[in-house]
Design brief:
The protein has one domain. The chain contains three helices and no strands. Helices cover 48% and strands 0% of the residues.
Length: 120
């Protein structure tokens, strides 16, 4: 989990995306609350310095989660698609963006046309 967090290549599971989204929300809202409550002098500059890298990480992780669903990273611009990315399951087996991060359907149990092989 959280390997190569700055790259948009590959696929991630919904748990990793959900934890990233939750962490972003807690850190940003916590800092906004604390800076507003205590009235830091340079809070706006510090807030921007914190939010920009965290937002980049959130966008990159969102692109990888879109890839796990078999979609382009641009799909995360659709309103409320983040909820779908958190709750929807990933594509079974490998897709054009890489192997399934859960390991389900990756190479060993798929036949030539992409259907699971029945284990007897």
């Amino acid at each position: 989990m959280f390997k190569n967090i700055l790259s948009s290549e590959g696929r991630i599971r919904r748990t990793e995306y959900g934890l990233t989204y939750l962490g972003y929300t807690i850190i940003v809202n916590g800092f906004v609350f604390v800076s507003g409550f205590y009235g830091f002098e340079y809070a706006d500059y510090v807030q921007i310095a914190i939010i920009i890298p965290l937002f980049y990480i959130l966008i990159v992780q969102g692109a990888k989660r879109c890839h796990d669903r078999g979609n382009s990273g641009w799909y995360q611009l659709i309103p409320f698609y983040q909820l779908w990315m958190i709750f929807a399951d990933s594509d079974y087996g490998p897709n054009e963006y890489g192997d399934n991060p859960k390991g389900l359907g990756n190479h060993e149990d798929i036949d030539q046309i992409g259907k699971p092989i029945e284990n007897e």
